[in-house]
Amino acid sequence: MNGYRHLDHPADIAMLISADSVEDLFIAGAEAWKESALESFIPESTFELHINLESISIEELLVDFLSELNFNLYARKLVYSRVKMITIKKNTLYRAEAAVYFEDFSPARHRLKNEIKAVTFHQMNIEHKNNSYSTRIIFDI
Amino acid sequence: MKINGIELLPLSETLWEIPVSGGMNVPGRIYASRNMIETSLRNDEALKQVVNVAHLPGIVKYSLAMPDIHWGYGFPIGGVAATSAKDGVISPGGVGYDINCGVRLARTSLMYEQNKNKIQKLIENLFRDIPTGVGSSGAIKKLSAQDTKKILKEGSRWAINNGYGDEEDIIYTEEDGMLAGAGPESVSARAIERGVDQSGTLGSGNHFLEVDVVEKIYDTLAAEAFGLFKGQLVLLIHTGSRGLGYQVCDDYLKLLLKEGKKFGFNLPDKQLACAPINSDEGQNYISAMNCSANFAWNNRQIIMNLAMKSMLKSFGISKEELGFKLVYDVCHNIAKLEEHLIEGKMEKVCVHRKGATRAFPPGSAGLPEAYKNIGQPVLIPGDMGRYSYIAVGGANSMDETFGTSCHGAGRLQSRHQALKEGKGRDLIKELNNKGIVIQAKGYNTIAEEMPFAYKDVSEVIDVMHNSGISTKVAKLRPVGVIKG
Predict the structure, then answer these.
(1) Topology of domain B102-177+199-242+293-331+364-404+415-483, per CATH?
(2) Which residue has the higher pLDDT, B139 or B340?
(3) A11 and B247 in contact by Cβ < 8 A?
(4) What is the pLDDT of residues B247-273, one digit of tens each?
């Protein structure tokens, strides 16, 4: 099943994300990030940005992908809306190619909840069991 | 005693040792009461992180933890480690994402009793004049990337040169508000982009600006030197390097994970990624960290100046009547090259302080002349409903903790638990009933930061006091708070 749920954490935000495929796990991670960063979200006009990344492990690729959403929000005031398409491939490195919908931040439509300092590597370990992928993910706030 | 499978030997009432085992290079040492060990540390990963830090190449003496120790990333919060400047490493995880997060205390000549009816108005003005909350920006005129690069080199000096403070403020800021060896070329364009409009902003989470009243004096001599007296109104600011520092840490953690393999270190946690101090990677991180530290000092300097202007407006008095002076500004997330006594010899080491405050005793180099015989002020916030403490560097701090003390209370409840506990309660009214005016961007922040979510800071302070690491000077009680 694709999705996320909150785990208890003494100071920050911990989530368990799970999905039927690695691609869907990245989408679940993006939705968990949105839930953690935004209080409310009224979607309106969106535009597409392409995110192409390479990393040495699948965990680092996931951190890098979510860090892109984080950077776009806090530095460029671009709010992640949804993933249009994502593919993950492995050659010598892990590679993600994604088309992601963003929208310009508007206080009338987007209410921010937490300032996520960073997406951390702490306790991240993508497991593939019983046709399902899952990992913990912790956002430092 | 064993906690989570880790052996702890009591060395005194307030000090515990984890003996060397496995790949540990040095023992772990934890400052804590027996109660803390048996309660708050029982279900925490922090002790394991003390053990992990002891694996760092070139670590000397001990992997230390202050009594506000809790679970962090790589290092525990409250973790302290010194590594040899000659052949040791620097680890961004030993500094944290919020580089030079720190505390600044300013004093006034005003008495709370004569001004308590004006606190509401003051908090409204402070909340309007100082941007708070998630991604807060726009406190001062719009800066360019070039301006930001100047801040990265000049630190507090930039604020003073641009009309946000007095020359004297520099003297009362750790390192004069500017670390040398800060090359903006080591900071990514992304980090600059993330911080370019955040100078003079408080941010969110546990960052705050507080108006406090000095409730109790413990050390008359030190209080006098710091200009503190009972009943006085003071200002406490807690924030750091904002998005710029977060991005610098993120950038270098990723770089060291990717490039660090060539160093051949075998570390138990990815977030302890590190580089030899003398490598290009290590030197570049130190430069970028110093830039972030300078950005943070400039940030707190601007906030303090904006706050002073709000106070003048709110009280309708002159600057002379307000008597506004910086007591001290000290950081609690940093790594600094310092000289310490290692096996009978003075050696240069890189002291990582992550959620730990420098606490130099009397006579130490680098203290303002007025505090030379007293020691360095150690600023330790508690929670917004109870109290904070001002302490002073103690006689044992250099020998035992590389001149370091604790930095705060530490959380008792997760944010999620605190939100649940606050549900259905009028928390603003509860604080008002205790004589505390609060303004925050969101109600959830208030719930997450309520006193019930934090440990009692006095237990933490007492461990440091009884160990002679930092001793109590004054207790502050909040009367007005702004938060993100």
Answers:
(1) tRNA-splicing ligase RtcB (3.90.1860)
(2) B340
(3) no
(4) 999 999 999 998 888 999 989 998 999
Active site residue B407: yes
Closest-CA residue of B relative to A116 is B134
For the segment B296-318, the average pLDDT, to the nearest whole number, is 97
Q: B349 — phi, psi (to 5°)?
A: -135, 160
Residue B444 to residue A82: CA distance in whole angstroms: 26
For residue B377, list its beta bridge partners. Answer: B392
Contact state of A74 with B258 under an 8 Å Cβ cutoff = no
For residue B60, the Cα-to-chain-centroid distance in whole angstroms is 23
pLDDT tens profile B341-377: 999 999 999 999 999 999 999 999 999 999 999 999 9
- Tell me the nearest-neighbour CA distance from B382 into chain A, angstroms: 15
Domain ranges of chain B: 2-96+337-357, 102-177+199-242+293-331+364-404+415-483
B65 pLDDT more than 90: yes
Residue B443 is predicted with a pLDDT of: 82
Sequence-distant (6+) residues with CB within 8 A of B250 are A67, A118, B97
Separate counts of helices (H) and strands (E) for chain A: 2, 10
Q: Indicate the fold that domain A3-140 takes in CATH.
A: Archease, Possible Chaperone; Chain: A; domain 1 (3.55.10)
Q: How far apart are CA A80 and CA B168, in angstroms?
A: 45
- Chain B residues with CB under 8 Å of a chain A CB are 44, 70-71, 73, 77, 97-98, 133-135, 190, 193-194, 203-205, 243, 246-247, 249-250, 253-254, 257-258, 270-271, 411, 413-417, 442, 444, 484
Contacts of A126 (CB under 8 A, 6+ apart): A22, A25, A58, A59, A62, A133, A134, A135
Of the listed B55, B207, B340, B407, which one is catalytic? B407
Give CA torsion, residues B192, B193, B198, B202, to 10 deg. -80
Average pLDDT in the B38-47 region?
84
Please answer yes or no on whether A67 and B190 come within 8 Å at the CB atom: no
> What is the residue type of B223?
A
